[in-house]
Amino acid sequence: NTVMEVEERIHMTRHERYGYPVLHNHAYIEIVYVYSGECLHFAEGREFPMRQGDLCILAPHAMHALSVTSDDTIVLNIMVSTKVLDRSFLDLLRGGKVAVRFFEDLFYKKERVSPYVIFPTGDDAQIRTLIELMYQEVEERQYAYQKSLYLLVQAMFIQLVRRYEMLAVVTTPTETSFNNCVVSVLGYLSVNYNRTSLGETAAFFRYTPNYLGKMLKRYTGKTYTEIVQEYQMEHARRLLEEDRLSITEISQEVGCFDASHFTRKFKKKYGIAPHEYAELRKRQSGSLRKKLSEALEEKPPEALEEKPPEDWEEKLPEALEEKPPEDWEEKLPEDREAEPSGDREKKPSENWEAEPSGD
Question: Following CA atoms 79, 206, 204, 95 in sequence, which dihedral angle do they give, to the nearest 10 degrees?
């Protein structure tokens, strides 16, 4: 069971041969690629052979085990952190349905997720080269190797979508945490509330509308409509504070039928009409700016306000140009040559080296 290092988002290892196939799972995505030969894969209660060029993507927490029992077989494991699954990564896969559906399920942590997807790439030289370059990056660990791995993984998925979308084998989705799914639905609605419906949201998460409505009510205490209206009004309130759009434009932005419909909903939520709220925020903002301006213009204490003499600029050159006494060079040698007083400074006799020692 390989553990990724904390700072790594992508890692790669070579699977050992003749090891006992122990069922295990990971918190990250694992990609199994058969570089040569064949192996036996056990995943989520299923058993299936994998041959050269087969590429299996396992969802996080999918229980699986590999059996490699041939000297000619090379199996490579690529571990990918779920942090890699950002929106830009998903946008990259929009050209295909199988891959993007699989990763969207993971990204939004849906209740039902396929445990794995298999792409039979065979002798595809481009996929093979990309895998080899990944292995080289991990082995050498040169500058920015994690960034390089990320780009190589992206290039690999582009090829999978282009060439093997129709050949992919997708398993039946399995159940995941119910609570996680509620959080994911709410996150989805916070972004898409103004362009989706209960039916469309339910279809996206593979529920019936009735089931999704009951699930939201059970875990939030609110209906689907109430949740959407909360997102609408909160977004509208922020737009009014920004003071960039008109009331009509804001009503369209948040998905209301017209300005009057939006006004009724906003007043019901906040007890004040949208235009009144906007004016109130302007006054509050203007008052705050005035107080801030006054605070900045407030006079400092007298001690800090004390000014230098008016003629300081005239006197400064004079002070800088002030010369030392004309006879300073004559006095300096005299000071140095002055005889010191006391026995401590007494000079030795001229023939001190010839005189005998007192010892």
Answer: 50
Handedness of CA 215, 221, 226, 231 (dihedral sign): negative
CB 65 within 8 A of CB 25: no
State the Cα–Cα distance between residues 96 and 166, nearest whole angstrom. Answer: 9
**Which structure tokens are listed for 351?**
């023939």
Got the DSSP string for 188-202? HHHHHGGG--HHHHH
Q: Are 249 and 285 in contact (CB under 8 A)?
A: no
Chain CA centroid to CA 323, Å: 66
Q: How far apart are CA 3 and CA 263, in angstroms?
A: 55
Residue 227's nearest CA partner among 255, 269, 189 is 189
Average pLDDT over residues 48-76: 91
Lowest mean pLDDT among 20-29, 198-207, 239-248: 20-29
Q: Which of 201, 208, 205, 195 is nearest to 235 (CA)?
A: 195
Higher pLDDT, 36 or 331: 36
Distance CA(157)–CA(299), nearest Å, equals 65
Residue 41: both structure tokens together: 């894969």
Predicted TM-score (pTM) of this structure: 0.49
Per-residue model confidence (pLDDT) at position 192? 83
For 75, other C-beta atoms within 10 Å of its C-beta total 23
How far is C-alpha 72 from the geometric centre of its chain's CA atoms? 41
Whole-number Å distance between alpha carbons of 219 and 179: 8
Q: What pLDDT shows up at residue 105? A: 72
CB neighbour list of residue 34: distance below 8 Å, 6 or more residues apart = 50, 51, 52, 53, 54, 55, 73, 74, 75
pLDDT tens profile 98-153? 676 777 776 666 656 778 889 999 999 999 999 999 999 999 999 999 999 999 99
The single residue listed with the structure tokens 């998925």 is 157
Token representation of residue 123:
């002798």
Q: What is the pLDDT of residues 343-355, one digit of tens each?
A: 444 555 565 555 5
Nearest to 34 by CA among 6, 65, 73, 83: 73
Q: H helices then E strands: how many in the chain?
A: 14, 11
